[in-house]
Amino acid sequence: MAATVLPPLPADRADKDAFVSYSRLSAFTLRAIEPVGPQYLSHARRALRGRTWSEDERIQAQINVKNVEEESVSEDEEAEDPVMLTRDPKDWKGQDHYKVLGLSKYRYRATDEQIRRAHRKKVLKHHPDKKAASGSIDDDGFFKCIQKAMEILSDPVKRRQFDSVDEAADVQPPGRKSKGSFYKDWGLVFESEGRFSKKHPVPKLGDEKSTKEDVDFFYNFFYNFDSWRSFEYLDEDVPDDSDNRDNKRHTERKNKTARQKRKTEDTARLRKLVDDCLSLDPRVKMFKDAERKAKEQRKWEREADARKAAEEARRAKEEEERRRKEEEDRSKEEKLNSKKAKESAKNAKKKNRRLVKAAVKDVNYFVDGVASASIIDSTLDDVDLILEKIDDTELVDFAQKLSGAKERDAVKAVFLEAGAGLIGSGKVEETDFKSIRA
Amino acid sequence: MDIENGADTVEGTTAVIGISFGNSNSSIAFPAKDGKVEVIANQDGDRSIPSVIAYVGEDEYHGFQAKAQLIRNSENTVANFRDFIGKSYAEIDPTYSHSSAHAVEQDGVVGYKIVVSSEEDAQPEFISVAEIAKRHLGRLKESAFDFLGKPITGAVIAVPTDFSASQRQELTSIAETAGISVFQVIQEPVAALLAYDAANAGAFPEDRIVLITDFGATRSDGAVVAVRGGMYTVLATAHNYELGGTALDQTLIDHFAKEFEKKHGIDPRTESVRSLAKLAAEAEVTKKTLSASNSATISIESLAGGFDFHSTINRLRYEMLARKALDNVALFATELVKKAGLDVLDIDEVLLVGGSSHTPKIASRIESLFPETTKIASPATSPKALNPAELVARGAAVQASLVQEFEKSDIVESMLPVVANAPHLSKPVGVVLGDGSFATILESHTAMPIRKSRTFTAPKEGGDIVVEIWEGESEIVTRKVERPKENGDDEDNFEDDEDDFEDDEDDEERKKVVKAGTKMADVALRGVKAGAQIEVIINITADLNVGVAVRELGGQKAARGEIEGSKIAK
Fold first, then answer.
1. Minimum CA–CA partner of A15 in chain B
2. Which residue range(s) make up the domain with B442?
């Protein structure tokens, strides 16, 4: 250190300032830095983002702090239970392997990497050589536990067998009277049950906003749950003595039935669990209510149709009524009108008849001099015949023509024409006329 | 950013690799767990894979299997083709393809006439160098895939420093056609240094100047690299296309050929192509054996004229035979140092790369050139040294692991000249101490911007101190000295036989001294505690402003200032 001692400040230093600069850097050489290595990447980052050295350091430090925090959270160490440390390694079946490795927080969720790391950490701490160094000889009981735990957890088959019976990972369903949130409590239960599923992804319980399809799918999934859970782990040890084969087989059979029984029980247990949950599920009630309401609504809608139809019918009837009345009124009026017209027509007819008769009389019944009574009769009979047979419009026409004709011949011609018209239309026979056509 | 992150990807579903594409041998490495890098063996179990492709009928052979074809099927065996990539026929030096398929030109493209059919009267087909290189790289990728069991997402390829930009471009596109996404093409010597530093120093290698000599099979490359703040700047490069393992092989070939001729009156070198090829192949094996043991045997059945050949050779004899080649090695190294404008005293470390660096004599010759303070990294001087033939591939893999998480555009962007080109200090910057000596903070050849700190001690009595910032001047002082007795003894035993010429006049000691040159600034710090630790931070910005900050560690006293710099146009 003596070589790096700084000189004292000369007493005659002129400047009061702490910093005095004398000259600049001498000329630089421009060279290319090789674009390799971690430091170059930092350099490139600084150059490209335009950061100064300190800025960059600060930003990177922040990122690193974040990383370290994440790391330390995941590496959070678990306190070791003193009872656990004195476990008998021979009783490995009763041991909680996750707890031994300090992974009881993760259990079936622990990744292989986590297990590997946890094991390494525990081995470093509990290795017999370390223990020996600190004075205790032959104290490798817990180390054996660690090795056994690692043996089980690092083998996927054995780990599944252990996970199958790892009750510490089970989440107890909340009681019926539980005050907690239904979705939260039961969600955890089914999350832990879902770990046995052969099918993935396992549906989540969801929340009050879940759709009916989701809820149905969830319950169907768990009612038809395909579980890999098996109970080999609880098997009684099969005796390994070759001389007593019967005994061995007996134990094997016993184990097999026990496994089967447990499996059946487990299935029944899950079924009951789902039943319980279903019975408590507020959504089911909600969906039922909603359905009922929907039904009522539909019914109401359906009835509304009928009501509407009745209303329609009533209205139609009224309409009909009204129309009928209108019709009636109109027909009445029409009738009235026609009566008047008839009357006037009658009058006109009368008038025309009078006019016709008068015309005949005026031309002296078509004879010169005094007309004889028989001629008058026959002529009048003819006129009557014409008037009787002629229809109203023809009569008007006829009368008009007559009023225009003053001479006897002209009048006669009009009469003849009328008579011919009647004969032409087949109303009168020619023979009916007695005098006019004569 | 750090190497550790590479490991995550290795555990993932894809992998990246580093490829050393040598003219004679290639190797592949991948970033393994915990920041380590491992070299991949191909299907034959070789970690140094000959860059040779051979065709027997329709069958394609690669690596050692192909190299074995040089003896009986040389015209359909392609070797030493790397240097031809991206070059026209006029530019290539076909010297090293004389014992394999000869390079020919067709439609302005360099290639080979190869029979790739098992038909009786099959005509040779033209296969371009690019096609050969593509098949070679494809085989390497296949080996990596078989080894790792994961698809290869990308690679960093290392090439010699004299590979032109167009050659790099050509190589990149060839690699892409072979299904390899190239992150980056880096320089071989720097890759080797990166691998060396990653294995020994981690992310923060110390500042030093390293001479990297890459003695390959057919050529030698060298570079002087300044390591400053973990960044590498090449100060000079040199290439020798005559020097290499083949030159050493040749001495053995000549030696054994003469011996054979003496016995049987036949010179196997001129007898037939096959005799020569047999002898060359065995001579190479013998040379490799001699690197590890003191004597080696060679035995070839029916070398020439139906005569078998069997002989032994010891290392000393071999080293005498190879004296000329070894002299060239020494010359190559000293010339390169001179080219960089440096003295051998400036070289802090020598890194021997390339298969030929296994030869112990090369290491000892290099060692004799440099002062004792210079560290020589080679298998002959340090048993822990990494295999020099694998260093380049390892470095490429280290780089691959560093850049794999970046977007390709980011990688390209970070390699732009505007980023890579930086002003470098021409003189060291440091502090003048109480005894008048100069303590360097920033070495010369340091790329700017830079920030670096160094801690000094306040005088025993404490009080007011001054920190004087100076630019240093380095010079070589020569001092006549009596050679210490024991030193002489030591060397006599070893080197009298061979190196007696060199040590004769060695009665003077040369030493590199850095003195204070120009004063740049001083900083007064008043009232510091006795014997306090004083940290001096020099921070040179991109504008070349020199910021100086002085503070008492564990105390309140601090002072700072800035020397204005001339703005530089980048």
1. B524
2. 429-474+517-563
B105 φ, ψ (degrees, to nearest 5): -115, 135
Tell me the DSSP string of A222-234. Answer: HHT--B----GGG
**pTM (2 d.p.):** 0.64
> What is the rounded average pLDDT of the residues B132-143?
93
Asked if pLDDT for residue B133 goes beyond 90, the answer is yes
Q: Is A71 on the interface with B (CB under 8 A)?
A: no
Q: Which residues of B touch A36 (CB under 8 A)?
A: 184, 186, 190-191, 194, 232, 395, 399, 402
| pLDDT of amino acid A1 | 41
Q: Is A153 left (phi over 0), alpha (psi -120 to 50) or beta?
A: alpha
- Does residue A201 have a cis peptide bond before it, meaning omega lies within 30 degrees of 0? yes
The answer to whether B445 and A32 are in contact (CB under 8 A) is no
Complex-level ipTM: 0.80
Enumerate helices (H) and strands (E) in chain B, giving the number of each: 15, 28
Q: Examine the domain organization and report whether B470 and B335 are in the same domain.
A: no
Given CA atoms A102, A107, A109, A111 in this order, what sign does their dihedral have? positive
Given 3.40.50.12780, 1.10.287.110, 3.60.70.12, 3.60.15.10, which CATH number is that of A82-168?
Answer: 1.10.287.110
Which of B9, B186, B427, B522 is the best residue to mutate to test the A interface, defined by the most A CB atoms within 10 Å of its own CB?
B522
Contact B425/A25, CB-based, under 8 Å? yes
Number of alpha carbons in the 13 Å side-chain half-sphere of residue A204 = 11
CATH number for the domain that contains residue B220: 3.30.420.40
| Cα-based distances in Å from A86 to A80, B373, B444 | 11, 57, 63
User: Helices marked H in B1-158 — which ranges?
Assistant: 4-11, 64-72, 129-148
SS3 percent helix, strand, coil of chain A, rounded to 5, is 70, 5, 30
Amino acid at B308: D
B73 Cβ contact partners less than 8 Å away, ≥ 6 residues apart: B54, B55, B56
Neighbours of A166 (CB within 10 A): 19
* C-alpha triplet B390, B395, B397: angle, nearest 5°: 95
Work out the end-to-end distance of chain B between its first and last CA atoms, rounded to an integer number of angstroms.
26
Contact A40 B232 (CB under 8 A): yes
For chains A and B, count residue pairs whose Cβ atoms are closer than 8 Å.
224
CB B164 within 8 A of CB B152: no
Q: If 0-12 CB within 10 Å is exposed, 13-18 middle and 19+ buried, where does residue A191 land?
A: middle
With CB atoms and an 8 Å threshold, state whether B414 touches A41: yes
Tokens standing for A379? Answer: 């002529």
**Burial (CB count <10 Å: 0-12, 13-18, 19+), residue A91:** exposed
* DSSP strand pairing (A19-21 vs B508-528): antiparallel
Where does A345-432 sit in CATH, by number?
A: 1.10.8.840
CB atoms within 10 A of CB B28: 29
Sole residue written with tokens 């009501």: A307
State whether residue A35 sits within 8 Å of chain B by CB.
Answer: yes
In a domain, B77, yes or no: no
Q: Which two tokens stand for residue B476?
A: 């070589």
Burial (CB count within 10 angstroms: exposed 0-12, middle 13-18, buried 19+), residue B446: buried
Give the model's confidence band at A71: pLDDT under 50 very low, under 70 low, under 90 confident, else very high: low
Distance from C-alpha of A112 to C-alpha of A99, rounded to nearest angstrom = 15
Interchain proximity B471–A54, CB inside 8 Å:
no
Question: What distance in Å separates the CA atoms of residue A286 and residue B428, rounded to the nearest whole number?
Answer: 81
For the cut 70, the answer to whether the pLDDT of residue A108 exceeds it is: yes
B343-377 tens-digit pLDDT: 888 899 999 998 888 989 999 999 999 988 888 88
